[in-house]
């Protein structure tokens, strides 16, 4: 072959085991290097559910993440997957959000370097984008929206750093909500005189709840627990 095209080399000479198997000793500095371009890999793990089909995961995440680069995927063990995302800004966005969903199944993401310590924690809250509509003009301010959104959970940020004057009465915000509570479709904003204004709430996404086990983050068709059909009870007359 063309010597200029060669990118591998004879790194060491093998020893031989008793059965003739060649054995090579790997230096510590080589072990520390790990996977080439390791920072470009993202580890994903589904939360307490049977993962969707590989083809569906690949198609959905390429549609969401693949605007600047093509996403390659490899299944590891159980519910863990390895994704190659060569674009740095896309990886930063994926890590910033932290939790994604495919076919109503929650998937956590982490850098590949955290693979040994990547444990799923119990989820009690989740960040959700919501749009508040019909906000009274006198409450269309950061303090006013903060008070209204407190009815949902802990308000985190508006979609834009400043409120858009062309969208008076409407605001897209990020809220940390408790999963043990309902996702109300409206909030009642009341003053000390008893006047009440109803503010409508639209959710960008609400996590699925399994109808079989009651756990958050997957639907019944992805549940790891065996489905127990309802028993028919025959009454003797």
UniProtKB/TrEMBL annotation:
Keywords from the UniProt entry: Metal-binding, Zinc, Zinc-finger
Source organism of this protein record: Camelina sativa (False flax)
Presence of the UniProt keyword Transport in the record: no
Boundaries of every CCHC-type domain copy: 210-223
Phosphoprotein keyword on record: no
Name recorded for this polypeptide: Uncharacterized protein LOC104777293 isoform X1
Annotated Pfam families: DUF4283
PROSITE patterns recorded: ZF_CCHC
């Amino acid at each position: 072959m063309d010597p200029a095209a060669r990118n591998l080399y004879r790194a060491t000479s093998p020893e031989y085991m008793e059965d003739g198997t060649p054995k090579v000793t790997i230096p510590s500095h080589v072990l520390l290097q790990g996977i080439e371009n390791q920072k470009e890999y993202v580890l994903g793990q589904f939360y307490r559910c049977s993962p969707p089909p590989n083809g569906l995961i690949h198609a959905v995440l390429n549609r969401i993440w693949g605007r600047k680069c093509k996403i390659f995927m490899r299944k590891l063990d159980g519910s863990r997957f390895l994704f190659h995302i060569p674009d740095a800004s896309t990886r930063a966005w994926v890590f910033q959000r932290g939790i994604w969903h495919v076919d109503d199944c929650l998937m956590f993401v982490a850098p590949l370097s955290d693979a040994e310590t990547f444990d799923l924690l119990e989820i009690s809250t989740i960040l959700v984008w919501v749009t508040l509509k019909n906000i009274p003009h006198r409450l269309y301010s950061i303090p006013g929206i903060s008070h209204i959104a407190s009815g949902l959970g802990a308000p985190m940020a508006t979609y834009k750093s400043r409120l858009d004057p062309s969208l008076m009465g409407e605001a897209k915000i990020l809220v940390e909500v408790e999963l043990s509570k309902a996702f109300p479709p409206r909030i009642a904003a009341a003053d000390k005189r008893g006047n009440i204004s109803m503010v409508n709430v639209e959710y960008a996404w609400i996590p699925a709840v399994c109808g079989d086990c009651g756990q958050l983050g997957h639907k019944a068709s992805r549940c790891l627990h065996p489905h127990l059909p309802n028993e028919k009870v025959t009454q003797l007359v």
